């Protein structure tokens, strides 16, 4: 059965000692495709090197909203230059985070707009992080989508129903992580229950958000198996049916990634 992890952070320091073993364990359980995510432009070289070294791993380019204050001089032209690499399939993760507020809100908005401009120019998926900024994000998305076709991924969704509704109206896809398995994540499961089946993908966001029953351990791409199983159970799907559905959705959202040979 095919598994796809749409959001991994394989350059993270927690994988420095056993990165290749982590990738091998993912393959052993059936993970056929992964996207490793860029959180800072200074880390792009490491991120893209991982993708270049593995036929089944692709990459993004971008700066997490936590680090927006450090990327005020980042231009769309620079993102386009880096994002033109054949292994890059997405721009981000970018977005708004009003929980930790590591960067001023205005800086986050400005850097988000830079990413959106690059995503438009590259025709590559805009990968979005949102936390406690639903209304502002919905408005930004509507403004950016109004400028032309834009593929949108709401990564690791924990926001409310209204943002989901407005994003879906723009053609967005919503990704769910191991949070779906958490005891107190009823709000997330409610959104995952209501999202159209043709707009859902899954992820781990490893090394974070380890799903039950592995809480307390470092999350790895292999744990996307538990995320996919939780999704299948929530929506009343057979495992094979869920696998096919999620793979189809993933490849519509990331059309340049080849499918796993059957």
Can you give a write-up of this model?
The structure is a single chain. The chain has 262 residues and is an alpha/beta fold. It has a single domain (3-229, 249-253), classed as Metal-dependent hydrolases (TIM Barrel, Alpha-Beta Barrel), CATH 3.20.20. The chain has nine helices and eight strands. It has an eight-stranded parallel sheet. Strand 5 (125-131), helix 5 and strand 6 (152-154) form a beta-alpha-beta unit. The termini are close together. This is LuxR family transcriptional regulator. It comes from Candidatus Viadribacter manganicus. A divalent metal cation 2 binds at residues 129, 155.
CATH architecture: Alpha-Beta Barrel
Categorize the overall geometry.
Answer: globular
The radius of gyration computed from the alpha-carbon positions, rounded to a whole number of angstroms, is: 17 Å
Strand content: 15-25%
Counting DSSP H or I runs of 4 or more residues, the number of helices is 9
The helix content is 25-40%
CATH superfamily: Metal-dependent hydrolases
Number of domains: 1
Q: Biggest sheet, open or closed, and with what strands and sense?
A: 8 strands, parallel
Quick summary:
With 262 residues, the protein is of the alpha/beta class. Helices cover 39% and strands 17% of the residues.
Secondary structure layout plus pairing:
Blueprint: E1 3-8, H1 19-28, E2 31-36, H2 44-52, E3 57-61, H3 76-83, E4 88-97, H4 105-122, E5 125-131, H5 134-145, E6 152-154, H6 161-169, E7 173-176, H7 186-194, E8 200-202, H8 224-235, H9 239-253
Parallel strand pairs: 1-2, 2-3, 3-4, 4-5, 5-6, 6-7, 7-8
